[in-house]
Design a protein that fits this description.
about 350 residues, alpha/beta, 2 domains, 8-stranded mixed sheet, 6-stranded mixed sheet, 12 helices, 18 strands, about 30% helix, about 20% strand
Length: about 350
């Protein structure tokens, strides 16, 4: 099995490839920002991103994306896929199955009427967090017959192409919150200036002052997160999920601090946000490999406070960045002397083989 973390700017786009019955199968989790597929460069010429390169290669090899998982409707997860659908009129022909909790589907699940204001179409790259983008996506997958309209909720179990999935998020109550009216993100949450990051303190200083406060964002709480099991190996993909939901699911599955889930790799929640990765959640999953997907352009992710939390629990792990330039910005000489076995790393091609 190969797991590749595409350069998706400040978002997630993950390709999982494996053999099943002699055929190469592909799972795509999210599509990153619109520019992960294509954007206009400074000279006006089109610049193609890793999502387009990935899709083109899959098509050239006579393969398909057997499963497309859209974890939630934020632009840094759905934007690249919507751009792909817009530019490639044949996209649906190489997609097998889709997981997506749309606004309409959630409304049906709870037998409640959807709020019309949430359905307004929004422009690409907008800062308006809205189910409106999800409506575009839902219309496409439904019209092209690649979606079975199944809701994906915590503690459900799926098996597909020989792979087992245990869903950790969202919980029904987090899904139901999506039925409320959506608002613009608060201006302070969109600040991208370097002086707003928390890299000035050392890991040790962050550990000493650590206080956890959970992410209140409704859209992040609706994220599809899961354990994927292949050939008795576990892989955890946390999207932007809320840690309390993940914790409750892991405990319901029988895991504890004393008996944690053993995993080959964990894709950290919300690009390494301190509000989406608590010590309690970290302690429930035993692994040596963590991956952070972001270029740090927004929200000053990853938060060093989270990395300090991770070092305090697992001081000899490997933390992989799909944009390795961040490593030198974050870690000080004292961090390396205080935690000599805590290894911030990059991977050639951002690809892992298991």
């Amino acid at each position: 099995m190969k797991i590749k973390f595409l350069k998706a700017f400040n978002g997630d786009a993950i390709l999982i490839s494996f053999k099943e019955s002699g055929e190469t199968r592909n799972i795509l989790i999210d599509g990153g920002m619109p520019a992960t597929y294509v954007q206009k460069g400074k000279n006006g010429k089109l610049e193609y991103g890793e999502l387009k390169e990935t899709v083109d290669k899959i098509r050239e090899n006579g393969q398909k994306i057997d499963l497309l998982v859209l974890t939630h409707v934020d632009d840094d997860h759905i934007g690249g896929v919507l751009k792909w659908f817009e530019k490639d009129k044949e996209a649906h022909k190489i997609i097998g199955q889709v997981w997506f909790n749309s606004g309409r589907l959630i409304s049906e699940y709870f037998d409640e009427q959807e709020i019309e204001e949430n359905l307004l179409e929004i422009p690409d790259e907008s800062t308006l967090t809205s189910i409106g983008q999800g409506v575009k996506f839902e219309d496409y997958i439904e019209e092209n017959g690649i979606w079975d309209r199944s809701i994906v909720v915590a503690l459900e179990y799926f098996e597909y192409l020989g792979i087992k999935f245990k869903i950790l998020s969202p919980s029904p109550d987090k899904l139901k919150l999506l039925l409320g009216k959506w608002e613009k993100e608060k201006p302070e949450s969109l600040d991208t200036s370097a002086d707003k990051n928390d890299y000035g303190l050392t890991l040790t200083e962050h550990i000493e002052k650590d206080k956890f406060k959970e992410d209140p964002a409704v859209h992040n709480g609706s994220s599809i997160a899961f354990i994927m099991t292949w050939e008795k190996k576990n892989f955890v993909f946390l999207a932007d999920a809320h840690p309390t939901v993940v914790i409750n699911s892991l405990k319901a599955l029988g895991y504890s601090k004393e008996k944690p889930l053993n995993a080959e790799l964990v894709k950290i929640s919300h690009h390494g946000s301190k509000a989406n990765n608590s010590v309690e959640m970290i302690e429930l999953i035993k692994t040596n490999k963590y991956v952070i997907s972001t270029n740090g352009d927004k929200h000053a992710h990853p938060n060093k406070q989270f990395l300090a939390r991770l070092a305090s629990v697992n001081d000899s792990c490997e933390v992989y960045f799909n944009y390795p330039d961040q490593i030198e910005q974050i870690f000080k000489t004292k961090d390396r002397s205080d935690f000599p076995n805590f290894k911030p790393m990059s991977k050639v091609g951002n690809e892992f083989t298991f």
